[in-house]
């Protein structure tokens, strides 16, 4: 919802010529830590960072739209199911989950419990400016 090709932010950054490719969002966690990483390539990363901060604040204030949430929830479900088409991906997923003490099959059960309200809570609690770190690699 935040940075995907159908998002307002992506359209704005793409039309302004600020993105060299689609931004990517990764979530990594273990028992000791967790983080969200947004990565991409831009000729002006500071401007992209500022636009991202503004969009996060806008969504925090206006709330997540139900239709956007439902569309993206279905997309995530589809992407998860597609992982089962690749033996190497299945092995990676099951091994990573095993070491975290997670049963990979429980994702499908938990999927149903994720609500728009929960997504809003995560947005509000995780995306805080004081927790932000930016790393810019220049050649």
Provide a descriptive summary of the structure in words:
- The chain is mostly helical and 139 residues long.
- The chain has one domain (8-131): Metalloenzyme, LuxS/M16 peptidase-like (Cytochrome Bc1 Complex, Chain A, domain 1).
- It is 53% helix and 9% strand.
- It has 6 helices and 2 strands.
- The protein has helices spanning 8-15, 45-62, 66-82, 87-99, 106-111, 116-126; strands spanning 24-29, 34-39.
- A two-stranded antiparallel ribbon has the order 1-2.
- A hairpin with a 4-residue loop joins strand 1 (24-29) and strand 2.
- The longest helix has 18 residues, at 45-62.
- The chain is globular and about 40 Å long.
- The chain starts with 7 loop residues before the first helix and ends in a 13-residue tail after the last helix.
- The mean pLDDT is 92.
């Amino acid at each position: 919802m935040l940075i995907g090709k159908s998002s307002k932010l992506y359209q704005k950054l793409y039309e302004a010529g600020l993105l060299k490719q689609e931004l990517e969002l990764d979530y990594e966690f273990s028992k000791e830590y967790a983080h969200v990483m947004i990565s991409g390539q831009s000729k002006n990363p500071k401007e992209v960072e500022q636009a991202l901060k503004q969009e996060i604040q806008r969504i925090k204030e206006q709330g997540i739209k139900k239709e956007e949430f439902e569309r993206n929830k279905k997309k995530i479900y589809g992407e998860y199911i597609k992982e089962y088409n690749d033996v190497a991906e299945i092995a990676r997923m099951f091994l990573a989950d095993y070491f975290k003490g997670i049963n990979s099959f429980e994702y499908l059960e938990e999927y149903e419990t994720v609500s728009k309200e929960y997504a809003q809570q995560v947005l509000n609690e995780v995306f805080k400016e004081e927790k932000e770190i930016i790393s810019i690699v220049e050649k």
